[in-house]
Amino acid sequence: MALILDLLVQGAQMAVVLLLAPLLTGFVRKIKARLQRRRGASVLQPYRDLARLLRKEAVVAENASWLFRAAPYLMVAATWVAAALVPTFATGLIFSWSADLIAIIALLGSARFFLALAGMDVGTSFGGIGASREMMIASLAEPAMLLIVFTLALTAGSTQLATIAELFTRPEVGLRVSLGLALVALVMVAIAENGRIPIDNPATHLELTMVHEAMVLEYSGRHLAMIELAASLKLLLYVSLIGALFVPWGLALPGTGGGAYAVGLATYLAKLAVGGFLLAVFETSIAKMRVFRVPEFLGAALMLGLLGTLLLFVSRSL
Amino acid sequence: MNGLGFDAVAAVLLIPLASAALLVLLPGYRLTARLNVLASLLTLLAALSLLVVERPAAGPYLLVDDLNIVFIVLNTFVGFTTSAFSASYIGHELETGRLTPTYLRFYHAMYQVMMFGMNLALVANNIGLMWVAVELATLTTVLMVGIYRTHEALEAAWKYFILGSVGIALALFGTILVYMAARPVVGEGMDAMVWTVLLERAAGFDPALVNVAFVFLLLGYGTKVGLAPLHAWLPDAHAEGPTPISAVLSGLLLNVALYAVLRFKLLLAANPGGIATGPLMVTMGLASVLLAAVMLYRRRDIKRLFAYSSIEHMGIIVFAFGMGGPLANFAGLLHMVMHSLTKSAIFFAVGHVAQVKGTQRMSEIGGLTETHPWLGWSLVLGVVAIAGLPPMGIFMSEFLLVSSTFAREPVLTVILVAGLLLAFGALLMRLNGLAFGEPKGATAPVHASYVPMFAHLALVLAAGLFLPGPVVAWFQNVAALLG
Amino acid sequence: MGDLTFDVAHMLAGGLVLLSFVMLYQDRLYALLNVYALHAVVLAASVAWQAFAQDAPHLYVTAAIALAFKAVVIPTSLHRIIRRLGIHREIETVGGVGPTMLAGMGLVALSLAVMLRITPEAEPLAREDLAFALSVVLLGLLMMVTRRNAVSQVVGFMSLENGLVLAAAGARGMPLVVEISVAFSILIAFIVIGIFLFRIRERFDTVDLHALDRFRGERR
Amino acid sequence: MTVVVSLACVAVLLATAVVGVAAGRHSAGRPLVYGLGLVATVVAFGSAVAALVASPATAPELVLPIGLPWLGAHFRIDALSAFFLAVVNLGAAFACLYGLGYGRHEEAPHRVLPFLPAFLAGMNLVVMAADAFGFLLSWEFMSLASWALVLAHHRDPENAHAGYVYLVMASFGTLALLLTLGLLAGPDGGYAFSAMRQVGLGGGREAGMATLVLVLALIGAGSKAGLVPLHVWLPLAHPAAPSHVSALMSGVMTKVAIYGFVRIVFDLLGPSPWWSGMVVLAIGGASAVLGVLYALMQTDLKRLLAYSTIENVGIVFVALGLALAFRSNGMELAAALAFTAALLHVLNHSLFKSLLFFGAGAVLSATHERNVERLGGLIHRMPATSALFLVGCVAISALPPLNGFVSEWLAFQAVLQSPELPQWGLRIMVPAVGGMLALAAALAGACFVRAFGIAFLGRPRSAAAETAHEVDRLSIAAMAGLGLLCLLAGILPGTLIDTLAPVAELVVGGRMPAQQAVDWLTIVPIAESRSSYNGLLVFLFIAASASLAVLAIHRLASRALRRAPAWDCGFPVPTPNTQYTAGSFAQPIRRVFASMAFRARERVEMPPPGDPRPARLTVEMHDPVWDWLYAPVASAVGWIADRMNRLQFLTIRRYLGMVFLSLVGLLMVIALWP
């Protein structure tokens, strides 16, 4: 019985992330449009786009290989699995122990790996640009992310998201410098990973500046839909990761009744809304930076992560 | 009964002498070459018989004991293989007209005289006699180095002669001093020059006199060992003489001189007031190793290259004996045997290479493993062995030497290791050019006598993997003897 | 007899050292050869005196050998060689005569310092003789080092061997081995040198070693 | 028992070498040699695995009457040896299988066939030897055989140079090890490992000596494993050899070097000071990052792989350093975790590095091209090879669910144990090194995206790449086998960890919790609440959701597919030159890292307007290690050699002068002697 319930919760989690992802994207777009005093498309526009793309035929370049066609599905799968393991409205999911935070990051890494390869598959200059820039960004973002993980894990004594989240709900953790640093670093990494302004602009096709769009330039139809879906899943993942780690309140603990789950869902939606809003505000209030200033941005994140880890010992010794 | 043993000793001495007299008279190189091989073989058999028969009691002139029998057997064996090699080598020289039949007659006779001298030096129980013998061997080799009568050959022989005879003089002075030291204790007359007597009475000698004597003997015989800075004659003598002589020089003469030095080291060790001979020998050994290692880098002449490597290895051996102790002495003995075998094998190969390519300049030799696989690979094998790589015997001796001395004298050992590495780098650089890469020079087929070469290499290989028990025991008590 | 024996022996040995200095000082080949002959004569005398002092008759033989070969045969033949090669010009010493003499002094001092460490119970005669012999040896070597000319180098070598003979003679009761070996070595040395000088002349028109040095093994 | 079997296999291998000498030029030589080698190595692998699983408490010691006379040759297979024996023979077996097919393209078989079995025998012997002499003998024999293999194509001057540098560095390392073992054995020669171990356990070694041993062992084993700064020979020598030999050298021989280090420092030396871990950590981290940076800058496929070997060796040494640090503080559990991570990475790297080198070899034999700038589009012409190469790339980039990730994950878990360490230095240093590890992993990802993307994807950049075709079945079989093993090791790590437990117990005196206990094949380093990973589930999830997505799409959405020219933002150019090159791909990373690491400088020559000449971009990079360490030494030796060489050209008089001076000097010594 309990097992079935757990499975249900897990299934619900997977469904939730899948369903909410485009909504978050649409929400952010809407807010941005509003902030720029535009009316903007409906919040549901991303769903419509996906549906349209799915209906269209896929146009594939002549010399594209099987990798080109397989990559979107692999990306979606990896990102989805990763997103399914992040506590959104409830912790202690039945499969949460199958991969800890490090593994989740690595899963996103494999998604990126295949995306970059797909970008290079057709053999156009833009694909190459995108892939090379993406890997450069990743080569700085991933270590930064891992140092953040170190900070959290050394604080909580675990890399298990559920454990960390549960621990951080307790009061005795309190405020810590290193956690603050970790939060800032995590936000920076999240922005970079999702290719948001100021790192990349998901809305532009200006070749000098684009990274993500350059890689997926050759995609169309259902493949493009998959990629879009994966992108919004990733965004959702990061927002809910930040939510689960730094504002873990309201998460339904395992074994608590349906009411708790309802509360968890509600708080989760609220977190998403706030996160999306803040993201939109940030994006509208800042300008896109040149690609070769990106390393400095991420280097800062890296330093913050390291600093957080080292300060941890100080605060521990206190 | 030891009459038989004495006969064996006599044979070791008389066979070369008689055959030398015979070879002077006989014309025609084929016959003389064959006789030469035969005589050397007989000498070898006589020497081997020394192993089995009961040894003669030490007389006033002759002595066979554990120490020198190692040298005698080695000496006669390499002498035999070299004579076999020279038979084919000299034939080629005659065809190319570098040697004339008249000189050839003289060559074979001299070869036997030289063998006689060296054997005499080894079995002598008398410091005077030993001195005479060493000088005899030296002077004959001087003549043979100059045999080609080219400018370079004469110049090398002249250099060898001058330095050698200065060495002669110093050694003689040392010998006299030893007698002077012994006389008050032992009493006048022949006894004061007999090894066995000297050794047991050495404790009473006048230390100051013995010390001065050892200095002169170390320099005198050290000149023949080729220790730096007395080495100058060695590279040119090796490079300009006929290759069999180079092989004999590296393989035997250096050992004989070393043997003399060891004897006197024993004498000094037996004297309480004597200076510590270890530091002197270690210093000269290290100096030789480093100098040779550095000199190897700029060599152009293939035979001179390996001559310098001989200096290096003599340095290693002297270092080992200077360090002393059972393991180091064992390593020194083993290294000496392995070096004579390997180095003469290398010279056999080099001789044929030089004949095929018609030059000794390494810049004009290349890709041997392509053009002459047998020669090339045996050269590779030889250099691998001489560079102290397994599974050859020199690896074992270097292993023992370095590993046993490092804990005692870290600094010295590190210097030695640095020298080894330097020399290795130089040798390997040359080997790369000689054996590999695009073939250079003449590619005519070679009619070489591979048997001696392979015999030596096989022995070295076997020794690297498995030393038979008796040999080990024998080496061990010689090592103990050396203290 | 002690004193007189001692003094004469001492005087002769000292004379040898003195003559070695004179040889160092000489810079003409002929003069050099003459001094060398004198050197040999004095040697012969001192050996003979030793023979008398130790009443060891076999030493007379040595003395005779020394007289015959070193004082007569060698100088004359070297004269001939010099004449044949026409090199009776001055020999340039390496460092000037002055420094060479100073070095010689130093060497004598060194040999005394070394030899006088010997405990006196080895009777003084031998001790002093050894000291002188050693200095003669060292001076001969010095001469070989400081002369550029083959003949003078040979002469230096010979004087060195004179020192050896002196030492050998001083060694009381040293068996015949030594004299034979000495004579033998001188003989061989002389013959081979003769051969070589001959060959060298055959090849080059001088025995100045610079000519030889052209033929270094590895010319660039 | 195992010892006997393994020695028998070694004997067979040596015999095979003789066969190789005999049948080197004969057409039957290849199948004969590789076949025999395959059989022998498979048998040896089996016996090694059996020994590892059984792992008797006391491994018997076999003494043969060869080697050092009074000592004999000792052979012993304990758990550690058994594990490395398994690694060696696994790689060797696949190399032989690959060679059966690949050897067909070998133009100088008589220079490969004799030495390959000897090389394998040497590696086996190193792992089995239980006395200093046997160990060093087989160690150097291994170097020698591989040197001959590096010189297989000796006519290429580059290879000759590579062989030279390789052997000199190898014997440098051997001399260092010789000193190490001499130190451990002591002046009176206790050369048997058992004797050294006794001294170590007895605590008979003072700190200074332990330091010396550690440093020398690090130099000796590190120079063979390719640790920075002793790595210079590796990227020269590994690519020079035939590809299956490169695979052996990179995938297996470096592991033998690691074995040497573990054997000496963990086993023979006994307890080591706490900071010894720091040294190893620092060097390991540096090698990891620098190695992969070097790799990112390469355009030669095999050289790239060789450099990435340096990175992976660095990762292993980081884990070993952690194990040392934990062990010296008596934290057996954490030490076991770190050590297991090291062992797993050893195994994993041997798997995927061999796979990648085989792939490179396949490309080489299909296109005769090692320069990725002249490859491209091979995924269409060599589908199997490219798919398998892709597997290797994913594995080496430490991406789940393949095996590379597992070992790195364990290493990270070990890093997270650092707070329990008492020493501040370690506490601060370990997370920093962990960051370097993460950096290395991310850069590796970039490196292999570049390698695969440029070589196999896109459009062909040369005629050779255009006309390439798939390689023979045996080669593919070898690669497929390795790929499968990579996957299995990735999704079933628990069983591996349990198999390695005895090794950890032997070496660091502790073991990770048994993993069969955990349900669903999850691995749990410490406790489930702290961290856990389940490769199998992750793999299944990805497969399930991917197929779910495909299914849904194909049911709901349109299946229509149209082939069209690439759009390329509206202005496609037909020539393949417009593609991104390897150099341009690496440019951003080069600007970020290499400018400091390699003093990389870019220079653009822009012709004036109207000048038809093309603009040129030239990049120059310096290897700091070479510039600051090796070049000075080499020039110093040359300088001294030139100066000393005058001694060869002195006049006889001067030589006499030397004799004279040494005589006077010695006499003075006598005169001044007390």
What does this structure look like?
The complex is a heterotetramer of chains A (318), B (483), C (220) and D (674). By secondary structure, chain A is mainly alpha-helical. Chain A has helices at residues 2-35, 45-55, 66-84, 101-121, 125-156, 161-169, 177-193, 212-215, 221-246, 258-285, 294-317, and one strand at residues 58-61. Chain A has one domain (2-317). Chain A has 11 helices and 1 strand; from the N terminus they run H-H-E-H-H-H-H-H-H-H-H-H. Chain A is globular. The mean pLDDT of chain A is 88. Chain B has a domain at 276-483. Helices cover 78% and strands 0% of the residues of chain B. The longest helix of chain C is centred in the first third of the chain and has 28 residues, at 58-85. Helices cover 79% and strands 0% of the residues of chain C. In chain C, helix 4 packs antiparallel against helix 5 (124-146), helix 5 (124-146) packs antiparallel against helix 6 and helix 6 (150-170) packs antiparallel against helix 7 (176-203). Chain C has one domain. Chain D folds into 3 domains: 1-186; 271-545, no CATH class; 626-672, no CATH class. In chain D, strands 1-2 form a two-stranded antiparallel ribbon. In chain D, strands 4-5 form a two-stranded antiparallel ribbon. In chain D, helix 11 runs antiparallel to helix 22 and helix 13 packs antiparallel against helix 15. Chains in contact: A-D, B-C, B-D, C-D.
Please compute the radius of gyration of chain D using only Cα atoms: 27 Å
Sequence of strands across the biggest β-sheet of chain D: 1-2
Q: Provide the domain count of chain A.
A: 1
Write down the domain tally of chain D. 3
The quaternary state of the protein chains shown equals heterotetramer
Proportion of residues in extended strands of chain A: under 5%
Distance between the termini of chain A: 46 Å
Number of helices of chain A: 11
Beta percentage of chain D is under 5%
Q: Name the overall outline of chain D.
A: globular
Question: Fraction of residues of chain A in helices?
Answer: over 70%
Based on secondary structure, the structural category of chain A is mainly alpha
Give the SSE order of chain D as H and E letters: HHEEHHHHHHHHHHHHHHHHHHHEHEEHH
Overview features:
heterotetramer, A: 318 residues, mainly alpha, 11 helices, D: 674 residues, 3 domains, two-stranded antiparallel sheet, 69% helix, 3% strand, globular
Sequence-ordered SSE layout with sheet pairings:
The complex is a heterotetramer of chains A (318), B (483), C (220) and D (674).
Chain B (H helix, E strand, L loop, with lengths): L1 H24 L3 H24 L13 H31 L4 H23 L3 H19 L5 H36 L8 H7 L5 H19 L7 H8 L2 H27 L7 H19 L6 H22 L2 H32 L10 H4 L1 H14 L6 H14 L3 H26 L14 H16 L3 H14 L1
Helix pairs in contact in B: 1-2, 1-4, 2-3, 2-4, 3-4, 3-10, 3-13, 3-18, 4-5, 4-10, 5-6, 5-10, 6-8, 6-9, 8-10, 9-10, 9-12, 10-12, 10-13, 11-12, 11-17, 12-13, 12-17, 13-15, 13-16, 13-18, 13-19, 15-17, 15-18, 16-18
Chain C lengths: L1 H24 L3 H25 L4 H28 L11 H19 L8 H23 L3 H21 L5 H28 L5 H5 L7
Chain D lengths: L1 H21 L6 H26 L6 E4 L8 E4 L2 H24 L12 H14 L3 H19 L6 H29 L7 H9 L5 H19 L8 H7 L2 H26 L7 H22 L3 H28 L3 H36 L10 H4 L1 H14 L6 H13 L8 H33 L6 H4 L6 H19 L1 H16 L26 H22 L4 E4 L17 H16 L3 E5 L10 E5 L3 H22 L6 H21 L2
Antiparallel strand pairs in D: 1-2, 4-5
